[in-house]
Design goal:
The radius of gyration is 20 Å and the shape is globular. The protein has helices at about 15-25, 75-90, 100-110, 120-130, 135-145, 145-150, 155-170, 175-180, 200-215, 220-225, 240-250, 255-280, 290-300, and strands at about 5-10, 30-35, 60, 95-100, 190-195, 285. It folds into three domains: about 5-110 and about 185-195 and about 275-300, Rossmann fold, CATH 3.40.50.300; about 120-180, Histone, subunit A, CATH 1.10.20.140; about 200-270, Helix Hairpins (Orthogonal Bundle), CATH 1.10.287.890. By secondary structure, the protein is of the alpha/beta class. Strands 3-2-4-1-5-6 form a six-stranded parallel β-sheet, with helices on both faces.
């Protein structure tokens, strides 16, 4: 029987990384990153990337990309396939942890046969949202792909843009692709856990984390990033906190205002993650990191 892989998904600031480390110590595991922004090198503090030099557990896919490089979900899951196979060959347990839901779905459900789409199409659609509003773009989707529009919430910007970029990039409806068989990349069985926690507790943890980021030097980190003159469209420049701290450095807002804006956007991000996880990971095991000892016992029993 193939060795199992542990998956831990959850909103930001819920203690996923700490939990993964505790589990790794008990099951002789290695951790693989499933957070799209933590793939990038430039921001350690602002993305809450684990301090790998302080950890005894081996971590993979943290801070491996330059800002100009963009990975598709397919590229990520194929990298994870290679890593997990190497970890298992060394008689250890892969533990995949993060908050990017599409990454986990690529493991559990496989990849859709949708070809890669030019990034410029998504940029154009994001521009349409800013110019005309999400309601107008949703109406475009209703015309282009009525079946998809019925299954996508009119407020779900990410899925609306995805459906339209597929239509514009392939001249084929995303609802047609949904009918095709998905390609399973990783064949090992998985133990799937999603973190459930009180929303106010999560928001409070988000605020505490932002305060800690400022104490640890987030302003200096973003100032250094700004000097590299990366295009605004690169993923690293879109990380929560970059625009706000750059505005503070320009003298447009106070540092307190920057902090408040970062906290607000982090709350919004956590809310989107919670909604996505609840809708897309219905069959996953619910865990609460406020009771980590019980969680660890449950995970180990399932190995």
């Amino acid at each position: 029987m193939k060795k199992k892989i542990i998956l831990i998904s959850g909103p930001t600031a819920t203690g996923k990384s700490s939990l993964a480390i505790k589990i790794s110590e008990l099951v002789d595991g290695e951790i693989i990153n499933a957070d799209s922004i933590q793939l990038y090198k430039d921001l350690t503090i602002l993305t809450a990337r684990p301090s790998l030099e302080k950890e005894k557990i081996k971590h993979h896919l943290y801070g491996v990309l330059d800002a100009e490089i963009s990975w598709s979900v397919g590229r990520w899951v194929n990298e994870v396939k290679v890593l997990s196979e190497e970890i298992i060959q060394n008689n250890k347990t892969p533990i995949i942890v993060g908050g990017t839901g599409f990454y986990f779905k690529a493991i559990t459900d496989g990849l859709s046969p949708i070809p890669d789409i030019k990034p410029s199409i998504r940029e154009e659609l994001n521009g349409d949202v800013l110019k005309n509003g999400l309601e107008s773009v949703y109406k475009d989707l209703q015309l282009a792909d009525p079946d998809a529009s019925k299954k996508i919430n009119p407020n779900d910007k990410q899925r609306i843009i995805r459906a339209l970029e597929v239509f514009r990039g392939t001249k084929r409806k995303i609802s047609d692709y949904w009918l095709l068989k998905r390609e399973k990349i990783i064949e090992n069985p998985t133990i799937n856990f999603k973190i459930e926690a009180d929303r106010e507790w999560i928001y409070n943890n988000c605020d505490l984390r932002v305060d800690e980021m400022f104490r640890e030097g987030a302003v200096d980190e973003v100032e250094g990033l700004g000097k590299k003159k990366y295009p605004l469209k690169t993923p690293i420049m879109k990380a929560i906190g970059v625009a706000e701290i750059l505005s503070f450095l320009k003298g447009d807002i106070s540092i307190d205002k920057a902090s408040d804006l970062i906290k607000f956007k982090t709350h919004q991000y956590a809310k989107r993650q919670i909604t996505w996880i609840n809708n897309q990971m219905i069959t996953w095991n619910d865990i609460n990191t406020q009771y980590s000892d019980k969680i660890i016992d449950e995970i180990i029993k399932k190995l």
